[in-house]
Design goal:
With 199 residues, this protein is of the alpha/beta class. It contains five helices and eight strands, in the order ααββββαβαβββα. The strands form two sheets. A six-stranded mixed sheet has the order 1-8-7-4-5-6, covered by helices on one side. Strands 2-3 form a two-stranded antiparallel sheet. A hairpin with a 5-residue loop joins strand 2 and strand 3. It is globular. The N terminus is likely disordered.
Length: 199
């Protein structure tokens, strides 16, 4: 008779563990917990799935302000009328490091076309100095916001559940497309071009 409570306890523990793991996979703050560990090993990364959102289905414009890695104040309102690419990253996140050259390439392509496009990184859950050192080493020429507390992603309407995540905002500041996980330059340029072409 003593086996029944033990078995029930074991099954309960398994069920609880499954719920915790499920919560981690869908909770944006679970990324913060892993980044905060500081071991540069843990991260949750998406599979690179692309979502495009028809204009009629887009939510309200994203509002956001903060400080760039160099301490300069920035407000997303300054980009209205342009297409904005937001990339959530951290130097502790291996897929973020791997995708950095593709983001830089896509940025350079948009600049070469003189397209009405801005790029902005969101350096998630790390010291600004550490993020700035990575940006310098990687040769990233577009700016990044410092988001050590992990609060800026809460402004992204649930569309940045993993690190990295890349969002493309239309000229009104509404989320028009996103890539959940690493993105390559070709995919990102295509998404940006489509939003730029919108009337």
């Amino acid at each position: 008779m003593s086996r029944t409570p033990s078995r029930r306890a074991a099954l309960g523990a398994v069920a609880l563990a499954a719920l915790v793991l499920a919560g981690c996979s869908s909770d944006p703050n679970s990324v913060a917990a892993q980044a905060k560990a500081g071991d540069q090993k843990g991260y949750i990364s998406g599979d690179g799935a692309v979502e495009t959102i028809p204009a009629a289905d887009r939510l309200e414009p994203v509002t956001m302000d903060g400080q760039l890695l160099d301490g300069t104040a920035w407000d997303i309102a300054s980009t209205r009328g342009q297409v904005l690419v937001l990339n959530v990253w951290g130097s502790w996140c291996a897929p973020c490091v791997a995708e950095a050259p593709d983001l830089q390439k896509a940025w350079e392509e948009q600049q070469a076309k003189k397209a009405p496009v801005q790029f902005m990184g969101i350096d998630f859950r790390e010291e600004a100095e550490r993020g700035a050192a990575f940006v310098d080493k990687a040769g990233i020429t577009y700016p990044s916001l410092s988001d050590k507390p992990g609060l800026l992603i809460l402004r992204l309407q649930g569309k940045a559940p993993t690190t990295p995540s890349t969002l493309v905002l239309d000229r009104e500041g509404r989320i028009a497309a996103r890539v959940n996980g690493p993105v390559d330059a070709t995919t990102l340029s295509g998404l940006v071009d489509d939003v730029v072409a919108e009337k």
